[in-house]
Write a structure and sequence with these properties.
CATH class: Alpha Beta
Strand content: 25-35%
Bound molecules: 5-O-phosphono-beta-D-ribofuranosylamine
Number of strands: 11
Structural class: alpha/beta
Number of helices: 6
Radius of gyration: 17 Å
CATH superfamily: Formyl transferase, N-terminal domain
Length: about 220
């Protein structure tokens, strides 16, 4: 399946915290290295620094409160239906999870199959989940890194788009390693967005192939 676009790629970012990956994408767009437009920054945390960063750049910000959904039998799906409605209102083509600390359900995963990315601070499939820098150190790994992947229902399990590796040094703490990885995150996330914008990502099963350049304006989002 392929999507033909005449306008610039419409991106939404979901973030819960600090927002440095959001900032990297904003900076890349402003610098012209990523041809996309952020049409919504959405958080489940009212005071998220990510929302503040978005405001500073004049981007549309939305706090979507999880509380009204709590207690419902399908509270997570119900929350995601609210998000989906917002994403549709803004005609979003690509969703970026950037430090988004809620597990997305099939409501969003199916609506944005191969059109929703996440960044994770490990070399997946090693170390999905949380505290991954500490785990990599404790395992005695010599390399760590980060992964941009498409989002599927399994947490941190989707097809891998880009990865970057960094060394683990003898005196690393989780903090020093996280900082070294973060530098790479800020490079590969914007790069993945630009590849998507150029229509160069082709998904075959678990594998994502980066195709030779095609004109911007055509996004391949699955086998065509
Ligand atoms: C990053 O390390 C990212 O890989 C992980 O959560 C962290 C978010 O950082 N998913 P930030 O909010 O983008 O600064």
């Amino acid at each position: 399946m392929s999507i033909k676009r005449t306008d610039v790629l419409r991106v939404a970012v979901l973030a819960s915290g600090r927002g440095s990956n959001l900032q990297a994408v904003i900076d890349a767009i402003e610098a012209g290295t990523v041809q996309a437009k952020i049409v919504a920054v959405i958080s489940n945390k009212k005071d998220s620094p990510a929302l503040e960063r978005a405001r500073l750049h004049g981007l549309p910000c939305f706090f979507v409160d999880p509380k009204p959904h709590v207690g419902q039998p399908d509270s997570r799906e119900s929350y995601d239906r609210e998000l989906l409605s917002l994403l549709r209102q803004h005609e979003v083509e690509l969703v970026l999870l950037a430090g988004y600390m809620k597990i997305v359900t099939r409501v969003l995963v199916e609506a944005f199959a191969n059109r929703m990315m996440n960044i994770h601070p490990s070399l997946l499939p090693s170390f999905p989940g949380l505290d991954v820098q500490q785990k990599a150190i404790e395992w005695g790994c010599k390399l760590a890194g980060c992964t941009v992947h498409f989002v599927t229902e399994g947490v941190d399990e989707g097809p891998i788009i880009l990865q970057a590796a960094v060394p683990i040094l003898d005196d690393d703490t989780a903090g020093t390693l996280a900082a070294r990885i973060l530098v790479q995150e800020h490079k590969i996330y914007p790069r993945a967005v630009q590849l998507f914008a150029e229509g160069r990502l082709r998904v075959e099963g678990r594998r994502v192939f980066v195709e030779q350049g095609k004109p911007v304006g055509e996004a391949v989002i699955g086998p065509s």
